[in-house]
Amino acid sequence: MPRDLLSVRDLTTRFFTQEGQVNAVEKVSFDVEEGEVLGIVGESGSGKSVTALSLVDLVEDPGRIVDGEINYRNSELAESASENAPDAVDGDFVDVRKLPERHRRALRGPDFATIFQDPASSLNPSLPVGEQIAEAVEVQRRASANPRSTRSRTQSYGLGKFLLGTALPGQGYLTEESKARAIELLELVGIPDPAERAEALPHEYSGGMLQRAMIAQALAGEPELLIADEPTTALDVTIQAQILDILGDIQEETGMTILLITHNLGVIARMCDRVGVMYAGEIVERGSLEDVFDNPVHPYTQGLLGSIPDLESAGGRLQPIEGNVPSLLDQEMEDRCYFADRCPNAMEECLEKPPEFPGPGSPDHAAKCYLADHPYEPEQALPEDYFDDESSDTTVGRDDGKDDASGEGVSADD
Amino acid sequence: MTESLLEVRDLEKHFYERDTLVDRALGGEPVSIQAVDGVSFDVREGETLGLVGESGCGKSTCGETLLRLQDPTGGTVRFDGEDVLDLSGDDLRSFRRNAQVVFQDPFSSLDPRMTVGATVRQPLDVHSVGTKAERTERVRELLERVGLSSDQYDRYPHEFSGGQRQRIGIARALALEPDFIVLDEPTSALDVSVQAQILNLLSDLQDEFDLTYLLISHDLSVIRHISDRVAVMYLGELVEVGPVADIFESPKHPYTQALLESVPRASTDERDREIETLSGDVPSPRNPPSGCRFRTRCPSVIPPEDVTIDQREYRQIMDVRERIESREVDLDSAWEYVADEQPSSGGSSLRSLLGDDVREDPFRERHAEAFVDRLEERMLDVELSGSHAQTVRSALHELCYEDWERAASILAEEYESVCEVVSPALQDDRTHPVACHLYDQPDSVTANVADADVSAPVGDTVRTDGAESD
Predict the structure, then answer these.
(1) What is the pLDDT of residues B45-85, one digit of tens each?
(2) I want to staple B446 with a disulfide (CB 3.0 to 4.6 A). Which of A356, B194, B433, B470 is the partner?
(3) Which letter, b or e, does each residue of B406-439 get, where b requires 16 or more Cβ atoms within 10 Å of its Cβ?
(4) In chain A, which segments carry CATH 3.40.50.300?
(5) Do A209 and B281 count as a contact with CB atoms less than 8 A apart?
(6) What letter would DSSP give residue B385?
């Protein structure tokens, strides 16, 4: 029985914008088992990227994690934290949110590493790629020499640093070992002739190569958990296939745990063991790949699967989900199932927020939908025009809300 | 067979870089970017032709050029029998009424300061259709038809979501009752659930108004879903054209095969599907490969007739050749490595070790073997067998003396492929033509093969219909 590496409970992240409070992530709970690939799938604005950012504490103003626990199993960390932050520790688990900021930052790299969607904007355009990876290696090396302290591990690129580097070459931050390791990492992610490519600047790399370099950089810290946020969205399919291949191989070799966030159901199917489906800031259905793809309970999951044109057969008409993604502005969200206004099977009880019910599949299978509990009752159905007034009144606000959320870091899908 | 509404022949659009007056005055040669390079296809009345390819392959430029949104640098486009590129004045205006376009980005393709009504009405105004009241009425009808509400006439684009904006773009394209619409990535900015709504809308409109579509997309499942025929584009050229079922069920061109294989399927057996991923990146259109443009990544590039070699080894040798020809091998770092391995030479700089006269240099002479070993280790991922390893080593040996040309010619002599010498062309008069030397090629191409004196025959390696050797 695999153990959980990460156990997230009731994670809630909100953005406090001028238009009002945006509930980007609402009471999200999930477990990541050691060595698995867990997928989170959802459309733009569903809160999947903010969930990822919340885990590594990179949510930017005006966003804040307002509630929840992020329990991370690491006995070493638990031991050292038991001295200065005893309430964060529960057995081998440490609630990362309760750690002091300094320690939380030290987790990025050796414990949690992230790959983002757009590799071109994630690397410094004026430094050779190899150097940037070597830097990550160096940070990790110094961190293990002096654990849980961040002071000696960060460096700046000011004028002083530049002058010092010019006057005293060899006194730089990087060592030969870290540079050599960077080249090994580039080789690991399949960059041809890594020694040479390490000297090149990011603009000399193609998109696929840059994403490989990003993966190499993330691997530098030998992280326990790799968070891949839309790692292939900006790439062409043939390159996407290469990158997925590499991620899969590395995962198999090192047994690394991956949290894969994407809007692409095909990528999920290719990579993941278990899946969570997000809608309007909540995980509405979760379970094994088979549960979610072959036996979905939630009408949103069903709708999502019905919307994809099939590559294998010409097929007939698509079965899209009607309507649009709802506003996440607090004042416009009612306390009901957020999908009820688009749901073909909405019932009266859906006006009350559904709890999570176990699904018919594996023990992991669960859905936030009354249909998981009991079958559809036509006599309970909501009248078809039930939400109509409301939606025409708020069209303006709805779209504003959505734009806001994406402006604040809910990545808008390409 | 229905008639062709649009006939594109040898369409060509080259862009030029470094082509300003200053550059000319300084004597610089302009660099051409061959975005679209000799593309020919027909779009038949009432059908949807899907144009698919990866980013940068020229598919959007192709769409824009044939609508004369950009001026082509060569070729002809005939629309309904008339030569589009010769049109001017009223004829051009009437062509523009008949051929419309829907763009990819619903955020930048609508004027943020115009109401939705005014945006959709603008084509009617420009072409002075009817009275003002009639136009307004028509716009209201159009908005309803594309699934918006007519009381949204006075709203501004920012009040709409991406999917709704794309509906506005479609309404605008429909306003003048065109026969033909170019759909340039109409759904790629949208989420899947909204994409499905738009695709359904497009099919309904096609049935209702007898529209002919050219659908440009990188998304193979979208292409499969709504196209009748498909054209596959790679680096400015068409590699394969055919009915949708043929392209998807029995793709012929190695690129099409690889493209289809690369798409992850949204089903639970996806994890167990073995795929052979395509190596490398798309080359730059500034300097496209000679011959077949796909040969630098092709998993079935054709070796010369007199060479027996495993395909993986051949692919590897071709990659090495490519790098030697473009001089993309860092010799200094290999020498540095060799020098570091020598205990005696510790500390002295590389330049002082290497003499100026490359041919008469004792250090190079002494360490040539180690140098070649190092290059081999760095450049080869596949172990080469017997004589092939020998040939490659002798080429790498020339690099000791920085003789790039000798190194390149040693390999070229032995391994020159028909794929790099002669450009394949789309076969004539077939429903499913393909541009690849693995298949029968038109006479003009086989003649070139004979002229070029490459030893690879076209007929022998054919693995398809009616093999006919030259």
Answers:
(1) 999 999 999 888 999 999 999 999 999 999 999 998 889 98
(2) B470
(3) bbbebbbebbbbbbbbbbbbbbeeeebbbbbbbb
(4) 1-74+224-414
(5) yes
(6) P
Residue B424 token pair: 């394949």
Put simply, whether the predicted model's pTM sits higher than 0.90 gets the answer no
Nearest one of A44, A108, A91 to A413, comparing CA atoms: A44
Q: How far is B150 from chain A (nearest CA, A)?
A: 12
The nearest CA of chain B is from the CA of A13 a distance in Å of 23
B266:A305 CB<8 A = yes
Q: In the numeric block, which tokens belong to residue A298? A: 């939630």
Residue B160 tokens, joined: 């709409």
Query: Which residues of chain B are within 8 Å of residue A240 when distances are taken between CB atoms?
Result: 262, 264
Q: CB distance A311–B263 less than 8 Å? A: yes
Fold of A1-74+224-414: Rossmann fold (3.40.50)
Chain B residues touching A206 at Cβ < 8 A:
281-282
> Among all chains, which residue has been given the structure tokens 């080359």?
B283
Q: Which residues of A touch B149 (CB under 8 A)?
A: 392
Contacts of A287 (CB under 8 A, 6+ apart): A274, A275, A359, A361, A362, A364, A365, A366
Chain B partners within 8 Å of A393 (Cβ): none
User: How far apart, in Å, are the Cα atoms of B355 and each of A189, A404, B343?
Assistant: 37, 64, 19
Q: Which two tokens stand for residue A374?
A: 């009991």
B463 and chain A in contact, CB less than 8 A: no
The ipTM, to two decimals, is 0.83
